[in-house]
């Protein structure tokens, strides 16, 4: 008896394309002896479509044209319909597990996880609370602070405050932290809307840019640091992988350096002292538990170059998930293959669901 998995990709977020790549890899590597995969795409406008064509067309974005618009995806409980996929010929497929291979707002921030809770179907990855806390850089910092996880100095502003009294807001930011300053929309990922300011003019431009994506903005002390990441896996029993290091092809790891520039490199495992490795792994598990994570997360750190101080940067509850992305690569280096990892995540999803009841 095979398990029916609905693999969901695309979505309304700025990370739509990244999701297409993640889903294509998952589809290719999932154990098809064990799982039936049904692919569901969400367009950039937010429309859900059942897709059953060539998996390569997911990655290149042309899937939308050949998606089957006559198939109904029922995820909301009603009296007269079953939850699942309803084909035009009357055939019906129950969904046993949902796999949202989605990044960023609506897919990684608790919204879709809320829908899945309503549908009462197990789903891969973090739940509503951990997803939304993980996606909100400002709230997440406050949670980490409470757990005594070291972070770079930061402050924040809002669209309302900034537009009301620019000069005062700018002065206060400059009093709290010094240049270079990183400016980030509170709710996003993949470096979208993030910039590095070296002076007041950059700061104003950066805030205006970030405000295009969110009305809450985080401002951080920029540091000269190595970037090290750890993969976390589990529900109650949580494991951390070996750390990996990112060598950005640009001044910082922006969208271009992440996905377009071929010369950004991943060093796996990262060449760092064993003592620091242990510390980082412990912090990664602590951060995951602090947000009540389940399933998976990638926890990202800075190691300041001239002090070796460790700072937690962020937690990503649905990190890039192609077979060559950091998250699966770190597990591979720790002894779990990509196909096996997908299997483990689905089993963790089912386990969380049954444990809850
Ligand atoms: P995202 O969630 O979009 O990945 P991050 O907070 O990880 O956002 O920031 C993206 C990148 O910007 C980081 O990978 C790093 O290269 C750089 N960066 C972010 N904050 C800082 C900082 N405080 N000091 C130095 N570099 C930073
Ligand atoms: Mg992120
Ligand atoms: Mg990041």
> What oligomeric assembly is this protein in?
single chain
Strand element count: 17
- The percent of residues in helical segments reads 25-40%
Residue windows where pLDDT falls under 50 for at least 5 positions: none
Give the percentage of residues in beta strands: 15-25%
**Element-by-element helix/strand order:** EHEEHHEEEEHHHEHHEEHEEEEHEHEEHH
Helix segment tally: 13
Please identify the top-level CATH class of the largest domain: Alpha Beta
**Radius of gyration, rounded?**
21 Å
* CATH topology-level name of the largest domain: D-amino Acid Aminotransferase, Chain A, domain 1
The structural domain count equals: 3
The overall pLDDT, averaged over residues, is: 95
Taking the alpha carbons of the first and last residues, their distance comes to: 23 Å
Can you walk me through this structure?
The protein is of the alpha+beta class and 357 residues long. It folds into three domains: 3-123, 3-Layer(aba) Sandwich (Rossmann fold); 134-151 and 223-356, D-amino Acid Aminotransferase, Chain A, domain 1 (2-Layer Sandwich); 154-221, ATP-grasp fold, A domain (Dna Ligase, domain 1, 2-Layer Sandwich). The chain has helices spanning 16-29, 56-59, 63-66, 111-119, 128-135, 137-146, 159-164, 166-176, 200-210, 255-260, 274-290, 326-334, 338-356; strands at residues 3-10, 35-42, 48-51, 72-74, 84-86, 92-93, 97-100, 154-158, 181-185, 195-197, 216-221, 225-234, 238-240, 244-247, 265-267, 295-304, 310-316. The strands form four sheets. Strands 12, 13, 14, 15, 16 and 17 form a six-stranded antiparallel sheet that branches. Strands 3-2-1-7 form a four-stranded mixed sheet. The protein starts with a strand and ends with a helix. The site of adenosine-5'-diphosphate has 20 residues, from β9, β11, β12 and β17.
């Amino acid at each position: 008896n095979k398990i029916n998995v609905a693999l969901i990709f695309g979505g309304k977020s700025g990370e739509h394309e990244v999701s297409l790549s993640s889903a294509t890899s998952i589809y290719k590597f999932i154990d098809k002896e064990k799982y039936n995969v049904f692919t569901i795409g969400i367009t950039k406008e937010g429309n859900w479509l059942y897709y059953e064509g060539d998996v390569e067309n997911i990655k290149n974005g042309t899937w939308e044209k050949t998606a089957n618009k006559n198939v109904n995806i029922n995820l909301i409980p009603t009296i007269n319909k079953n939850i699942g996929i309803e084909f035009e010929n009357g055939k019906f497929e129950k969904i046993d597990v949902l796999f949202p291979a989605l990044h960023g707002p609506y897919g990684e921030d608790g919204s879709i996880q809320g829908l899945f809770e309503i549908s009462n179907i197990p789903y891969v990855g973090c739940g509503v609370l951990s997803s939304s806390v993980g996606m909100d850089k400002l709230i997440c910092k406050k949670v980490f602070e409470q757990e005594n996880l070291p972070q770079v100095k930061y402050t924040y502003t809002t669209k309302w405050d900034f537009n009301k009294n620019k000069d005062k807001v700018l002065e206060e930011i400059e009093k709290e932290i010094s240049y270079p300053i990183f400016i980030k929309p509170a709710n996003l990922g993949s470096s979208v809307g993030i910039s590095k300011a070296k002076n007041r003019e950059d700061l104003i431009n950066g805030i205006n840019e970030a405000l295009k994506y969110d009305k809450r903005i985080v401002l951080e002390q920029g540091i000269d640091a190595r970037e090290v990441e750890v993969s976390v896996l589990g529900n109650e029993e949580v494991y951390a992988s070996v750390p990996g290091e990112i060598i950005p092809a640009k001044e910082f790891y922006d969208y271009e350096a992440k996905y377009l520039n071929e010369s950004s490199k991943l060093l796996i495992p990262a060449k760092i002292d064993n003592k620091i490795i242990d510390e980082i792994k412990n912090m990664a598990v602590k951060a995951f538990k602090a947000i009540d994570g389940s399933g998976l997360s990638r926890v990202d750190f800075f190691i300041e170059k001239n002090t070796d101080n460790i700072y937690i940067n962020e937690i990503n509850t649905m990190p890039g998930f192609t077979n060559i992305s950091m998250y699966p690569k770190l597990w591979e280096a720790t002894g779990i293959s990509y196909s096996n990892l997908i299997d483990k995540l689905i089993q963790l999803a089912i386990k969380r669901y049954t444990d809850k009841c």
